[in-house]
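Work Package 4 report. The design task specified in the project plan requires that, given a folded chain encoded as structure tokens, an amino acid be chosen for each position. We show below one input record used in the internal validation round.
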């Protein structure tokens, strides 16, 4: 399984608008995505109000590529979020399951 950690920093003043997008669009979309084993959305906290994240566990690399396309190393961007986001970061890991 592939663990994908996607982090976003919003543009200053766009925190509330991005929070609406995050809760009303991004989370429901991810929860319905085929090949996604689990998704853990991380909403902003008072000490970091511009930071949001998703930790996703994908069944395999093929499932991830089916969702984002062949260039899975580039963040998948919804057009609705483009004007709200200052920066994005993305990392992939092989998931380690503890015994």
């Amino acid at each position: 399984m592939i663990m994908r950690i996607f982090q976003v920093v919003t543009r200053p003043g766009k925190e509330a608008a991005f929070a609406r997008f995050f809760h009303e669009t991004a989370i429901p979309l991810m929860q319905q995505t085929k090949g996604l084993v689990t998704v853990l959305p991380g909403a902003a906290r008072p000490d970091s109000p511009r930071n949001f994240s998703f930790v996703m566990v994908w069944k395999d690399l093929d499932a991830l590529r089916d969702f984002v396309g062949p260039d899975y190393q580039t963040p998948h961007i919804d057009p609705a979020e483009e004007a709200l986001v200052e920066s994005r970061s993305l990392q992939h890991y092989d998931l380690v399951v503890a015994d």
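The radius of gyration is 14 Å. Validation will be extended to a larger panel in the next phase.
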